[in-house]
Amino acid sequence: PSLYQNFIDQLSYLDKKINKDIFNFLFSDLDSNGYFKTNLKQLSLLANQSMNKLQNIIKILQTLEPVGCFSFDLADCLKAQCRSSELACSETAEILCDHLDMIAEGKVTELTNICNLSKEEIIEGISYIKTLNPKPAASFADDANLIIPEVKITKHDDQLDITLINNDFSIQFNDIDASQLNETLKAQRDEAMTIINSVKKRNLTILQITNALCTIQHAFFLKKGPLIHCTLHDVSNITNLHPSTISRAIQNKAIEYENRYLLYKTLFSAKGTKQTSGNELLDAMQDIIANEDKIHPLSDEKIKKLLEKANIYVSRRTITKYRDENNILSASKRKAHHNH
Description:
It is a single chain. The protein is mainly alpha-helical. Helix content is 52%, strand content 6%. Strand 3 (254-257) and strand 4 form a beta hairpin. The longest helix is centred in the middle third of the chain and has 34 residues, at 183-216. The mean pLDDT is 82.
């Protein structure tokens, strides 16, 4: 599909509805890299919308794939990509996006002072920024991409069967007496086994994800029902795979079902979202802190991990914010306090 069609398809399954005329107007102002040619003030005058309202719409559009289009400048584009990531270092990277000139000049020490981050965090953040795409729309060809589906789903009565499509690889070694294997052959043999095992592992990952999606979206496949709420975390809870592993594994991949191809990401839906209220979060945090080992209090990162076990997903920064707002001491201060 064209870049335009790609966005239109995604808008159809967003839970927030966006006015089509406003979308068309904003899309028409994008350059070939996905950036606006006009600034926000002029856009709001031309669209006859308040800057605030337009900014909220743009924030939503920035979450569409390829993430980072509908940005005003490079920092804006990279921040949008950081926000869409599940990785912990993306939070640090988002802060660093405000200091791209300093990053370019390699001023790590100055950045530690300005951003109040450790050197390790800064280096992690910078290497994450290097993986982002500064020209998100440029990769969109005018020709259609060929999609080769990964798996085929067929239904029998009330059952869904999953078959891997491209599963035709194998490797054979002629039996050579181990003593005759020289180092080069040994290394090649090990490398071949590693590749085969990686492919097997990748296929297993795809099967686990597909299986989880079939369980969650059972009604959609069997009864043509609506898609139900499903996030990377929901699939992560079933498969025990990390959300970022799932996100990478399904990138641009499709399923064949009843003679049509469905992109994996269309089976994820944000409708009917389960949001954790501030009070629930605070109660859960206070519970965890009340039961911690007083000599080794838990860091915010550890609290975040324990909350995930209780199906509460928030960033480490949110935990720090709630702690500060509710006058709960940090781990080091709780430790000192207890020692007194």
